[in-house]
Amino acid sequence: MCRWLAYYGSPIRLEELIYKPSHSLIDQSLRSKLGVETTNGDGFGVGWYVGGEPTVFHSVDPAWNNRNLRNLATHIESQIFLAHIRASTGTPVQESNCHPFRYGRWMWMHNGSIAQFATLKRDLVLAVDPELYPFIEGSTDSELMFYLALTFGLGDDPPGAVARMAGFVEDIAAAHGVPDALQMTVATSDGERMWAFRYSTARHSRSLFFSTDVRALRDLYPDYPWLQHASDESRLVVSEPFGTLAGAWNTVPENSYGVIQEGVDRMGVFRPRT
Amino acid sequence: MCRWLAYYGSPIRLEELIYKPSHSLIDQSLRSKLGVETTNGDGFGVGWYVGGEPTVFHSVDPAWNNRNLRNLATHIESQIFLAHIRASTGTPVQESNCHPFRYGRWMWMHNGSIAQFATLKRDLVLAVDPELYPFIEGSTDSELMFYLALTFGLGDDPPGAVARMAGFVEDIAAAHGVPDALQMTVATSDGERMWAFRYSTARHSRSLFFSTDVRALRDLYPDYPWLQHASDESRLVVSEPFGTLAGAWNTVPENSYGVIQEGVDRMGVFRPRT
Amino acid sequence: MCRWLAYYGSPIRLEELIYKPSHSLIDQSLRSKLGVETTNGDGFGVGWYVGGEPTVFHSVDPAWNNRNLRNLATHIESQIFLAHIRASTGTPVQESNCHPFRYGRWMWMHNGSIAQFATLKRDLVLAVDPELYPFIEGSTDSELMFYLALTFGLGDDPPGAVARMAGFVEDIAAAHGVPDALQMTVATSDGERMWAFRYSTARHSRSLFFSTDVRALRDLYPDYPWLQHASDESRLVVSEPFGTLAGAWNTVPENSYGVIQEGVDRMGVFRPRT
Amino acid sequence: MCRWLAYYGSPIRLEELIYKPSHSLIDQSLRSKLGVETTNGDGFGVGWYVGGEPTVFHSVDPAWNNRNLRNLATHIESQIFLAHIRASTGTPVQESNCHPFRYGRWMWMHNGSIAQFATLKRDLVLAVDPELYPFIEGSTDSELMFYLALTFGLGDDPPGAVARMAGFVEDIAAAHGVPDALQMTVATSDGERMWAFRYSTARHSRSLFFSTDVRALRDLYPDYPWLQHASDESRLVVSEPFGTLAGAWNTVPENSYGVIQEGVDRMGVFRPRT
């Protein structure tokens, strides 16, 4: 399993998100409180957009002592960040297995797993659009879920495509007699909006939180510097809260998804489709 | 493309094979003379057998300055070695793409490529035995050729299985209108025997050489220490000769294969089967 | 800080020591119970002897998912093993900072630190024998302690040399007004004997344990396979116990050292010398 | 030995400098024409300034297939770039040995070597300002030359400090009877200006070139896109020319240095001082 954070809002330096908070993502790489594993040290990745183009930085090192990440985080500024620290569930520790994955203008990252992935993988791979298939580079369930979602229309209707992906995974699992097929929190973005999903077949999903509206937080914490110059619409979605600011974090409801965008964000029920 | 060496014979320390010769495999990693690329610096691997069990050491570093390889080579002794230095043809530099690959008691390494692999990959993957499919860990054509050969009976009839693999690759390529489908020199072993193949669809295969019979070499080079205690049946197959010993190396004929084993080695014509 | 184990005894496969026990060194890399840090993921190293020559395998990866270590551990057998997992106290994660360090036939590994090492380093480096100085490759306090011990006669009188090293470090620290200069558990070997040290200026040393005499353990645990074929003199010294075998582990007393050798082991008081 | 490029001028994306030219730095990593080695695959580094602060990205991988470099180069834009590909002369391949080195607002990179460095290193290290000494992280002659130059006043008078560094190295070498002490091309910057040096004790220095004035080049090559929007003062200094543009490159004279700055650049004779 893994930990991730997704940011959408006013331009911010990466270090504000992943180093400075008291229980930052870097701290979570060593001392996750809510994750399945305490340690998330099997590589990491960050993704951001420059001129609408996604770019990523991946490494097989643990994040906590990676100096390139420390250097880049001081200087890279973006309105969208996807950051991910990995705890492998068996697939190799290699850059092609680091999140966020990228295709076209889309990025994708995942915490969770497909149950008995080795058993189901072949049938899942066969369903990937043959045009997309050659772009799969790694060996994780997470990347395959991304390519299934792309196959099922991520570019046009993200919630629908992810619902079809989830439904398809559950169908294949059912055909193989594999229970509790899917466990996922997912963030994906096209550089303009961001979608976050929390779902599990067993209705017992990994933790996911979204940040309280910046306007409300600003009143609560007048001395917190970043909040004062953050745009009203800045928003974080995280596997686990960064620190101890009471009222700053809200649970993403079980089996739901959210759209983070300019204007009003939106949240809906997530229901796999078949 | 890549360079490799396969050794079968009396127990030898790895360093005798990959460091000490004048144009050793390590030298070839920097200064290949016959390869498509001069530099073979995209990872390496060595495989050997301990008590009939194959083991491998893989690294994404160039071989030339890898200190672990230097240390291990001084101490590891085996009757069979497969050693490989990689020059990526596009797939990521990661340990799961390093040769030799391993399945059960089998090891496999390859120099060459499948033409337009991205186009053909999906159809090739579909032909892998579903029981074997989950064991594919990397993303190379080379590993896929191994799993196709395993699917087609490598365990029972190595030359036949490799011929069926080659024929199948050529069939799939033909169906996609891809010419000159296959380019390969391959070594594979089950720990008891070793097979080497040289083949290309275009009948213009990468270089491959086998060493002259030790008895003959010993007469030619009475002062060459290793030869004096090598068993009569010790044999090397290499992508390019190690040095300048006249008479030590013989070209493996175009479209042929050899079996290296206790007793008399055997060579045959290699003809893809469909 | 770090965790380590030192083994001396009948030939054993490395995996028996670092993978198979319930709270093995690999488990300690993720979940140390007695260490300063829970996670020891900043590289690792193992050292052993082949024909009296020390060899090492180092990696900057965390040990828990390293496949080369997994492969090598299955096959490497030795009568002496030094194995170390690192949690950096600030110096870079690089192979030249991985223990065990090696010079001539000597190996050395360390858990602990020199207080305010950046302040003291230069004066300590100046004391290293100029003939030895060029062999220092990394940047840790641990390696420098090794070269100081070599300078002060490790080859002739290990306990005396380590005592002089500790005394010298404390003297330099005192001159700089640095309190609580040294914190160390150290194992060192010349391939014939092994020495272990537990010491700290503050008399509050990191944990260290030695295994109960094999003859006694065999009576206690008649079903434990490895014990049945271990020689009477096999001995382990470890940063923290491997598992829950009652009576298997004994605390190395504060400020003491032990010699592990053929025949009777010896333990003594450790007192820095100036 | 190594290859490097230093850029000073209008903001440019890194990829324009290190990927797009026909004989780019990336191409030189595989196929250097003028270097001591053809292959420069022992790690790389790039440095640039953000808001006057230097930042670096270092890797032990060869540059040619490094995907993070490829990604970052597409997006990172700066007015100053220092880029370096390494061919180790014996010191370990590790990030702390990758150029450019950084201290305060200064960056430094080097091609060349100090003769018999192992013999001279200790005496050279002793001359480093004790306040600066703890910041040395790697083990190369190159980094030590940087810290000697800092000790000798790099911050106030770069040409003078480098001259004193070179003179000191030559003095120490003479005291040890080491001939031809120093071989260097160096680039250093404080974020406002850039200095380049070409020198060797033997007056037979590694190659170094500077680019022709942009105004002249623009007339020569009206179709070359980058030139059309490059500022008049944009300047490159490189170990070897990028391509075949006749008239684009000029040899930096033996034993000389240049200052690249806003307004008129300046060149002078380089003479070590003692």
From TrEMBL, chains A, B, C, D:
Q: Which domain of life is it from?
A: Bacteria
Q: Is Chloroplast there in the keyword field?
A: no
Q: Where is the Glutamine amidotransferase type-2 domain?
A: 2-263
Q: Disulfide bond: present as a keyword of the record?
A: no
Q: Mind telling me which InterPro entries this protein's record contains?
A: EgtC-like, Gamma-glu_amide_hydrolase, GATase_2_dom, Ntn_hydrolases_N
Q: Which UniProt keywords apply?
A: Glutamine amidotransferase
Q: Which PANTHER family match?
A: GLUTAMINE AMIDOTRANSFERASE DUG3-RELATED
This protein is called Class II glutamine amidotransferase
Name its species: Hamadaea flava
